[in-house]
Amino acid sequence: MPLTKDNISGVILAGGRSSRMLFENKALLELGGKPLIAHVIAGAKPQVAQLLINANRDLERFATLEIPVEPDQFGTDAGPLAGIVTGMQYSRKHLPNVTAMACFPADVPWFPSDIVAQLAQTMRDESTQVAWLCTAKQWQPLFSLWSLSLEDDLIAALDDGLYSPMALIRSLPNSQLNIVDIAQGDFANLNTPEDFAKARIQLQARNGGG
Asked: Which residues of the chain, if any, have pLDDT below 50?
């Protein structure tokens, strides 16, 4: 079955501790009058059949965004791989037509509107089980597309204490999507107050403001 929007779900990984933001939940911090994660939702939702938020705190606040919210099932210290498994389990339970799942980091507000389609094409072309992004020689494993058939592999990795997405990806049949020509502001990761200040200026520019 070809990979299309209709059989790809999506998960926004918002389960981190935001240590560089003094443990404030950065996904819920304001950017342009709305939470940071609202920008991620706006970019991700049109690219997948259904979107899920993976979060481990402030669940009631995330629920106001009208997207399903699920906490990690492997504890709050297992990192993004636990969030990916959570998304896979949700997709398998609720979305019978879905065969693959796209991941989006909750702290990257802007990315191409066809990033999932590009990852799917790369995975199809190379007949692999996971496709991941590299931008200008920088690895971006949290922008990735995973076959749901990998769920047991991810659970085994977590049981073995392997929490690095990139380490697991490299052990699996994988494809790398390289994007060199990056639009200004795309893939900017907001980790610190300084990053947010820059993003607010960038948002004005993206909206045509001064």
From this structure: 18, 22, 210
Distance between CA atoms of residues 193 and 45, nearest Å: 26
pLDDT tens digits, 137-190: 889 999 999 999 999 999 999 999 888 899 999 999 999 999 998 888 899 999
- Full-model pTM: 0.93
How many alpha carbons lie under 13 Å from residue 176 in its C-beta half-sphere? 13
| Residue 13 and residue 105 in contact, taking contact as beta carbons nearer than 8 Å | yes
For residue 5, with 0-12 CB atoms within 10 Å meaning exposed, 13-18 middle and 19 or more buried, which class applies? middle
Looking up tokens 């639009």 gives 183
CA distances from 191 to 51, 105, 194, 205 (A): 23, 11, 8, 20
Place of tokens 């993206």: 206
One DSSP character per residue, 106-144 reads TT-----TTHHHHHHHHHHHHT-SEEEEEETTEEEEEEE
Q: What six digits make up the tokens of 134? A: 């590299």
Instruction: Name the CATH topology of 5-206.
Output: Spore Coat Polysaccharide Biosynthesis Protein SpsA; Chain A (3.90.550)
Angle separating helix axes 80-94 and 151-159, nearest 10 degrees: 140
Closest C-alpha among 97, 131, 100 to residue 115: 131
Q: For residue 210, what are its two tokens? A: 């001064």
